[in-house]
Amino acid sequence: MTKQEILELINSNPVLFLATAEGDQPRVRGMLLYKADESGIVFHSGTMKDVYRQVLNNPKAELCFNDFKRGIQVRVTGELEIVDDKALMDEICEHPTRQFLRGWRESSTLDNFYQSFAVFRLKGGQATTWTMETNFAPKEFIQL
Length: 144
What we know:
Layout lengths: L2 H10 L2 E8 L2 E13 L2 E7 L3 H8 L2 E8 L4 E12 L2 H9 L7 H5 L3 H7 E6 L3 E5 L11 E2 L1
Antiparallel strand pairs: 1-2, 1-4, 2-3, 3-6, 4-5, 5-6, 5-7, 7-8
């Protein structure tokens, strides 16, 4: 797959599984993608969550996306950055797919919201794909 095909697959399948580490213990959870493009893979959580502390302590992560219809899995490895950009936070909250965030943003002072809302970006990661047909083939990596 090309970089563009991988980005299209990711955006078409916005549920991802995020693997982080807490000490020597791996932690995996489902997350909801905001977008993936040339600037990176962007998703969000709250600063009160364990995932936020895990990323602060160790930004290395792996994301896993699945296109179940085509039987393709994409894993992206890299380092997460925490994006402190109020304009991006507002953009995310105003997006039609993020209506569930509006109540949180409107229930507190805006500064408090910005302090409790965490935006993550994985930029420049390495992607690898898996299918049943390539199950035993050597991995190929695509730089994102």
